[in-house]
C-alpha cells in the first residue's frame, strides 16, 4: 500500500498517472478492509488495522529513504526495482502459503487477478519505455531486471491452478 501512495506522488507527471496509482491503492485498501473484517476475530481487528497503518507509514519512510539514497528523475529507477522486488516475495509467499495450509482461507482469485494484472501492466509500461527510448531505460533490459520479472511472474502463472486444486480438495473434504 505504501508503494502505491508514495509513487503516486513521487514519480508521476500527470493527473491521470496519479489516479492510476491511487486506483491500485484503493483496491489494496478494499482488500485489506475485507481481510481484517472477515479473517480476524473482532478482538484483533483494531490492533491489526493499527499495525497495517503504521506498517504503511514505515513503508512510506523506507521508500522515501531509498529515493533519497538513490536519487533519479522522478524516482523511476527506484520505482522499477522496488516494484519488481517487492512483488517477488508476495507472489511466491501467496503460492507457498496456499499449498502449505491446504485451504483457501485468506486467498482469492480476485486478489490473484489484481496481482497478475498489476505485474503485467507495470512490466509492460517499462518494457514499452525501453523499446521506445532504450538509452533512458537501459536497466529494464539488464539480466537482473529480466530475471526479476520472469521469477516474479512464475508464481503468478501457477497460482490459479494451485488455487483451484486446493479449492476442489476443500469441497471434497466437506462432502465426506
TrEMBL record:
Q: What is this protein called?
A: Uncharacterized protein
Can you tell me which residues the record assigns to a coiled coil? none
Compartment annotation: Membrane
State the membrane topology.
Multi-pass membrane protein
- Pfam families xrefs: Pyr4-TMTC
Q: Which family does it belong to?
A: Belongs to the paxB family.
The cellular component terms of Gene Ontology attached to this UniProt record, alphabetical and capped at eight, are: membrane
> Endoplasmic reticulum: is it a keyword of this entry?
no
Organism, as annotated: Lojkania enalia
Q: What InterPro entries does the database record attribute to this sequence? A: PaxB-like
Annotated TM spans: 52-71, 77-99, 111-131, 143-166
UniProt keyword list: Membrane, Transmembrane, Transmembrane helix
Q: Taxonomy-wise, where does this protein's organism fall, top ranks first?
A: Eukaryota, Fungi, Dikarya, Ascomycota, Pezizomycotina
Amino acid at each position: 500500500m505504501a508503494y502505491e501512495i508514495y509513487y503516486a506522488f513521487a514519480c508521476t507527471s500527470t493527473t491521470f498517472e496519479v489516479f492510476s496509482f491511487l486506483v491500485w491503492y484503493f483496491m489494496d485498501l478494499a482488500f485489506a478492509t475485507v481481510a481484517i473484517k472477515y479473517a480476524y476475530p473482532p478482538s484483533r481487528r483494531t490492533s491489526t488495522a493499527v499495525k497495517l497503518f503504521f506498517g504503511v507509514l514505515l513503508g512510506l519512510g523506507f521508500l522515501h529513504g531509498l529515493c533519497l539514497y538513490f536519487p533519479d528523475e522522478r524516482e523511476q529507477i527506484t520505482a522499477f526495482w522496488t516494484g519488481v522486488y517487492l512483488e517477488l516475495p508476495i507472489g511466491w509467499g501467496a503460492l507457498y502459503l496456499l499449498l502449505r495450509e491446504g485451504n483457501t482461507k485468506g486467498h482469492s482469485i480476485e486478489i490473484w487477478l489484481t496481482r497478475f494484472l498489476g505485474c503485467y501492466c507495470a512490466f509492460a509500461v517499462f518494457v514499452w519505455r525501453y523499446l521506445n527510448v532504450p538509452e533512458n531505460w537501459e536497466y529494464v533490459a539488464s539480466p537482473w531486471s529480466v530475471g526479476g520479472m520472469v521469477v516474479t511472474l512464475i508464481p503468478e502463472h501457477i497460482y490459479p491452478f494451485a488455487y483451484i486444486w486446493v479449492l476442489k480438495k476443500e469441497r471434497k473434504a466437506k462432502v465426506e
